[in-house]
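Working notes for the structural subgroup meeting. M.R. asked for a predicted model of this chain before we commit to crystallization trials. I am recording the input and output together here so anyone reviewing the notebook later can reproduce the run.

Input as submitted:
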Amino acid sequence: EYMGTPFSKPRLMAAASPLDQPGFWDPITSSIQWCEPNYVFSFYIAEFFNTVSNLPPLVWAAVGLWRGAAMQPLPVLLSYFCPLLVYAGSFLFHMTLQYWGQLLDEVPMIFGVLLLHYALAPSPRAAWSCLALALIVVTAMIVLRESPLPLQLSYATFVIGLVVRSVRSHLATPRPHSSFLLKLSMAAYGSGAILWITEQQICALVRPLQFHAWWHVLTGVGTFVWIQFCAERGLDGKGTVVASTAAGLPMFLPHDSRRRD
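Returned structure, recorded in token form:
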């Protein structure tokens, strides 16, 4: 996705697509350029598919927060704010391609993944450690706004760390459904990452396939399913049930909970 060199000027964009059109939010001020042509489907939406593809993850997170209220542990409920904030920011970013929208997309990514780290093993020490790490990374992102490296390296490190910690937690104290949930979450997120990388390398060839839009959907699935992995661990001793939520994604609630559709 990131076109040009990592140390290009903040407003120096990659060569425009021949399909680009002028739009409402011009001029573009974000420090990165994307594969999808701009303002092709709407004068008010810079990247149509990259924008609307954030809606399914937002719906899943909202449904999860609503159905899990008072039934899932508090750290799990807080985890739903990770996709809510990330995909809301991503919606605004891809709609506008403005630097303020870019920050609304990227800053929640850092805080969000660290919030998931906290939810996996909540404690006051973990909360303060995650907050400190987030502030350090976000400061680096703002100071070095011309480079994508602070975001890319830190986010990749935090995600890989979360996978390692999740696997270790599962192996230490397995739950009935944790293996399935962890594998499904990693498969969805990993597939999205492959599409994200592929689009960066051969943008012109895969532009019609909207790989970045699929990255949004697949990472949304992976995040939601991982939150259910965390919920099952938090509900240990109370029993869990598989409840179908939006789009058939699994959700784990206490045995005595009733459907709230």
